[in-house]
């Protein structure tokens, strides 16, 4: 059985843009230019023969067709991610390799300390004391937690506010390669960091 599919890059650009309602923020996640995202979405709209977004001066709005299309496309990407996680031997059971900059480790934030105590069914982490971007870029790390930074070409950035044992805010940035951003391990890591911070504040 053959499947009639629209451009897959366009589907990814559409799904990401729809989550952010912004070509610019979608481009940041996908590590391409906003113009490239816009062109991919336009090519998808042309292939489908419908408009998926209304382009506004300050962002995007989904059309009725876009609102109907988005849940199925998002579900399809989640299923692909889950199937890959279940099937790929290299991913199944492997610990997430997380680098944490020594300056952040020195603050002894409960969120970081808690990572090594997480239930293995939720997330298994190998934690290294390093802030070296080169280790992330060349594949020796899956994610890197560094002091807050605004941007870095080719990487997905997520801002995290950690708390020290004394309740002092420790701004940090979680960096990942685009392929890991949004996957099960990435979402679990962000969730753990956020939940540990809530626990530290209460």
Automatic annotation (TrEMBL):
<dbReference type="InterPro" id="IPR000847">
    <property type="entry name" value="LysR_HTH_N"/>
</dbReference>
<feature type="domain" description="HTH lysR-type">
    <location>
        <begin position="6"/>
        <end position="63"/>
    </location>
</feature>
<dbReference type="GO" id="GO:0043565">
    <property type="term" value="F:sequence-specific DNA binding"/>
</dbReference>
<protein>
    <submittedName>
        <fullName>LysR family transcriptional regulator, glycine cleavage system transcriptional activator</fullName>
    </submittedName>
</protein>
<dbReference type="InterPro" id="IPR036390">
    <property type="entry name" value="WH_DNA-bd_sf"/>
</dbReference>
<dbReference type="InterPro" id="IPR036388">
    <property type="entry name" value="WH-like_DNA-bd_sf"/>
</dbReference>
<dbReference type="GO" id="GO:0003700">
    <property type="term" value="F:DNA-binding transcription factor activity"/>
</dbReference>
<keyword id="KW-0238">DNA-binding</keyword>
<keyword id="KW-0805">Transcription regulation</keyword>
<comment type="similarity">
    <text>Belongs to the LysR transcriptional regulatory family.</text>
</comment>
<dbReference type="Pfam" id="PF00126">
    <property type="entry name" value="HTH_1"/>
</dbReference>
<dbReference type="InterPro" id="IPR058163">
    <property type="entry name" value="LysR-type_TF_proteobact-type"/>
</dbReference>
<dbReference type="GO" id="GO:0006351">
    <property type="term" value="P:DNA-templated transcription"/>
</dbReference>
<keyword id="KW-0804">Transcription</keyword>
